[in-house]
Amino acid sequence: MSEAPIDSALKFDPSRAGEYDRQSRIALAGYDACHELTACMLSSTLGSGAPAQILVAGVGTGQEILSIAPFEPLWHFTAVDPAAPMMEVAKTRLAEANLTERTTLHLGYVEDLPEDARFDAATLIGVLHHLPGDAAKKKILSSLASRLKPGGAFVLAGNCFSYQSHPRLLKAWRQRWIMQGASAEAADAKLAKILAGADPPHSEEAIAELLDEAGFEPPTRFFASLFWGAWLTRKVQ
């Protein structure tokens, strides 16, 4: 979950990598459900039981692969991430799940992959809101589109909406941290860190426009939780 420019990737240091899975499940109510539904959406789109090559951009701690792989045993995963601490966690978790032989790990960026590489599907989960500005967002989406086969499936998930534009959701997000045991002061600090370090697309319409410019079909949303959304689309034939 950390495919990002160098300055953004540096946020995912060993300390953050070590606590990422626990913190993500607090920050995103429905974290596991989102990943499970991603597996369902991809399987229903590609067809269950057939071999497929899946590109996982910003693999983070490997949760996408851990969720999808047991569901589709013939799929192979190429996992890309520029943050070495996150990749080390993913490597360990994938080895523990006996998924090493089904996964190729690349420390770096999507554009570092061979230009002729082509995948049946790709995921970008929890990444886009870490990329500052539309240019960086367009770049990674275009890089992913260029490495998908025509009609290839793509799952995009992450925060959308300007945080300040939805104060009620922001207050509910703060209460989510308190519900999970954080003090009011700690919850305020969490939100302040999020507000200072993320730049989500400002609407679902903005998501659709970014995808359209990158060469994808109009997306279908299949999951939502406060600021978070998940969409399935396909590369234009």
TrEMBL record:
<dbReference type="GO" id="GO:0032259">
    <property type="term" value="P:methylation"/>
</dbReference>
<dbReference type="InterPro" id="IPR029063">
    <property type="entry name" value="SAM-dependent_MTases_sf"/>
</dbReference>
<feature type="domain" description="Methyltransferase">
    <location>
        <begin position="54"/>
        <end position="152"/>
    </location>
</feature>
<keyword id="KW-0808">Transferase</keyword>
<keyword id="KW-0489">Methyltransferase</keyword>
<dbReference type="Pfam" id="PF13649">
    <property type="entry name" value="Methyltransf_25"/>
</dbReference>
<dbReference type="InterPro" id="IPR041698">
    <property type="entry name" value="Methyltransf_25"/>
</dbReference>
<dbReference type="GO" id="GO:0008168">
    <property type="term" value="F:methyltransferase activity"/>
</dbReference>
<protein>
    <submittedName>
        <fullName>Class I SAM-dependent methyltransferase</fullName>
    </submittedName>
</protein>
